[in-house]
Design brief:
The structure is a single chain. This protein has 94 residues and is mainly alpha-helical. The protein has three helices and no strands. It has two domains: 30 residues; 48 residues. The longest helix is centred in the first third of the chain and has 27 residues.
């Protein structure tokens, strides 16, 4: 049985996800050039920061895959830590 707090949290997270998605779609529909320029600037910053502009497309792909996998491992490790605020969350027992 789920508690009311977990239902409220799930509903809030779902509402936040829907609101964020609608806002992103609205921005894309209203200002496609600004979003495109922003994404191009972020890609340029990523390539310059890690010196990817000197690599071939295959090397860029391999490096980016490695960075993505390492970041996912780190984030999953940080997300599974036993912090006191997340202990017994949603178990329904006191």
């Amino acid at each position: 049985m789920t508690s009311i707090a977990s239902l409220i949290t799930d509903h809030t997270a779902l509402t936040l996800l829907i609101t964020t998605s609608l806002l992103a779609v609205a921005m894309l529909a209203l200002y496609p050039n600004n979003l495109l320029k922003y994404l191009q600037r972020k890609r340029y910053q990523y390539e310059v920061t890690f010196s990817l502009y000197m690599m071939t497309p295959t090397e860029k792909f391999i490096f980016s895959t490695f960075v993505f996998l390492v970041s996912r491992v780190v984030l999953s490790f940080l997300g599974t830590s036993d912090s006191p605020t997340r202990q017994n969350c949603g178990s329904g027992s006191v």
